[in-house]
């Protein structure tokens, strides 16, 4: 992750880039984050790379280029790319019902009232379609959201990771529970990407783990990205922390296992490095190709990174509030990525069409095709409350472009 070009050669001011590191260092010095790693590229070359703090505070191990991170929901864009690789082969249409691929999804119900102990349901009027999985408009939810009786149903049925199910069994159990809303009628962050991972398995004849390894990680040279890590690499994995009233405390009890998870799916679970994920972002920036390896056609990447919410609305309009320090205003959603629509409405700088996503432990990436810019931020902490670190990073990256 060393710089590959002088910052001024690609229109970035070195002094202004220094403001970014100073800003991020404060979060470590104030005890809000354990450490971080950052990489900013323009024109396909790394112009600024830095790290600060510790990946293991108790043993005083610094964050470095060899650090590995749990990327949680930054798994989702990778699995969305996998699905769209199959789409390019004609394996499905976006309008196809999910039930055509996973039969248990052919007969769905929708929550209409009552508690999680005695819910009332009605038959779904609209089938769940492939596009609904990719855009999180499926009517699925997450058990950890804790905003609705359906969320509680997920927890009571072992859909919070405690059920010990493989991906096929998890999807069948999921299909037996009521949807939060009619498919396509709203946006809600959900287990849709896990179901999408099962779609990849059925249509490809490979496990999602095998498909990602052979069709994405191998061609892109992402040698350190996988579900679980080798025993020899365990010491390189950044320890997971939780920000409490007493400060940062180890959150090993909340960490996804370093072993292969029970169901390698689509919604999370990957461990990766900044170097590996940088290669993934460069493939996207280059329209689906990197170092002669083409995963997607450029028109499909462009299609994926447009706003697919009906009527061009933003997430604030089409979705419920979610835990995030990021705004929902002026931001839409494509096929696996958030998509910036209106910088003024969002209250942050950036080009229309900038896309990206983040992970629950504080990781974030974005790709700005207009500026030919990518940014990666890696840390490993559950903050328990929104910290403006990733939003502040956005404004400081753009002020450095001159």
Automatic annotation (TrEMBL):
PANTHER family: BETA-LACTAMASE FAMILY PROTEIN (AFU_ORTHOLOGUE AFUA_5G07500), BETA-LACTAMASE-RELATED. This is Beta-lactamase family protein. It comes from Aeromicrobium piscarium. Residues 20-393 form the Beta-lactamase-related domain. Coiled coil: none annotated. SUPFAM superfamilies: beta-lactamase/transpeptidase-like (SSF56601). InterPro entries: Beta-lactam-related, Beta-lactam/transpept-like, Diverse_Enzym_Activities.
